Amino acid sequence: MLAKTLELVTEARQHGVAVGAFNTYSLELTQAILGAAEQLKQPAILQLGVASVKTGGEPLVKATVLAAQNASVPVAVHLDHCADLDMIERCLAWGCASALADGSHLSFEENILLTRQAAALASSYGATIEAELGYLAGTEDGVTIEAIKASLTHPEQARTFVEATGASMLAVAIGNVHGFTPNPPPLDFELLSQIASQVDVPLILHGASGLGKESIQHAISLGVAKINVNTEVRTAFLTAIAAWGQRVGPTPDVRRRGQDWLDLMREATAAARAVVTEHMQTVAMMA
């Protein structure tokens, strides 16, 4: 059933757990995420990135919304990491319940302006805005401890930012990074605690791929109510495809069992679903 992002996140926060938010790029990945959610009887958030929306357009967004509507558990659809107000409006009009107005690369004042404009826009659609304060490096950026420290969320700035923008959720930078790192940098839980004491909106943790169960659950205990996972899920999907290709060889025989498109998609979807299931079990456990 189609749900509102903020309602799912707020309810999770009240119960001391979090909602798993997983990026989807196709119907197969959507099925993997929803299959795990329905099996565990847990709510979930389907996230669409800017590149996916540019590629799939309105059909992809509306198909994702329809899949959420048909799910047996509450599911929200969210536009992830977007700095384009026009795209945010289009996705809200197509059925997304929320969007991340990503001004994290802007100055503090410019980030406030973008987020405030996005929040006003979202309210006209009955939707909500997630904002990001502090810059999350990605693995492609060449992650260093020095770079991470320079980009962390400042607690007092967080309070000013939320008050000035009307953002309903706040993504924080506490040492987390986008993408998978074999040895992820440690999260600054003291900083997270300070941020939580300054703002009264649910906190969001991006870059959960590669973080251990204990770190994720500790973050939840300090106020994080939405956990974003992308890299691990799509890597599992792609790895299954690569393994299928090695097993079948360069010229599949679609007449043979296990070598057609649906066989490939079943294997890849199952691999992604297993990763989603593991993360959903982690975020739903009382910290």
UniProtKB/TrEMBL annotation:
It comes from the Bacteria. Dihydroxyacetone phosphate binds at residues 179, 207-209, 228-231. Its cofactor is Zn(2+). Gene3D superfamilies: Aldolase class I (3.20.20.70). Zn(2+) 2 binds at residues 102, 132. Pfam families: F_bP_aldolase. Keywords: Metal-binding, Zinc. The active site is at 80 (proton donor). Binds 2 Zn(2+) ions per subunit. One is catalytic and the other provides a structural contribution. Zn(2+) 1 binds at residues 81, 178, 206. GO terms for molecular function: aldehyde-lyase activity; zinc ion binding. One of its GO terms (biological process) is carbohydrate metabolic process. NCBIfam families: cbbA (TIGR00167). This is Tagatose-bisphosphate aldolase. It comes from Dictyobacter aurantiacus.
